[in-house]
Amino acid sequence: MKIMFWRWLINVWPPLLFAGIRVKYVAPDFKRIVIQLRSYKINLNIMRSHFGGSLYAMTDPWYMAMLMQILGSDYYVWDRRAEIDFLSPGYGTVTAVFTLDDTQIAAIRAATEGGEKHLAHFKVEIRDRADKLVATVDKTVYVRKKPHKR
User: Fold this and answer.
1) Which residues constitute the domain of residue 102?
2) What is the CATH number of the domain that holds 119?
3) Of 9, 14, 69, 101, whose CA is between 20 and 30 Å from 28?
4) What is the per-residue DSSP string for 44-109?
5) Which helix or strand (DSSP H or E) is residue 11 part of?
């Protein structure tokens, strides 16, 4: 799927669109995605900062989506677990950058080669425009080769 179309499709998906979450960049090889959450009157809490749920939502599907694109249709890829640590209020536009490197991808392929399940762990930071750390999110993604490819 072309990157621009994929990005557009994700950006008009209602749960993200109406939360103010936007995909700003997708690398052609899907190894880097940049997500932003902008402030709107409808997505702020009583303290005028981002809702914690919105901060989490901006980090939810990306490692899973990246791995699905990179590994292809021979693999099951599911979000398994997430934990968010709120460190400071998120005001204005906040950004999360998701990256995968060749070493991580090779390790996932090696761990699943015989059909075993693998739980891949990732960490992402949410930062504001001043580069202040707002939250960290630990993600666990389940990966396993489909039965006909084992």
Assistant:
1) 3-149
2) 3.10.129.10
3) 14
4) B-TTSSB-HHHHHHTTSSHHHHHHHHHH-TTEEEEEEEEEEEE-S---S-EEEEEE--HHHHHHHH
5) helix 3-11
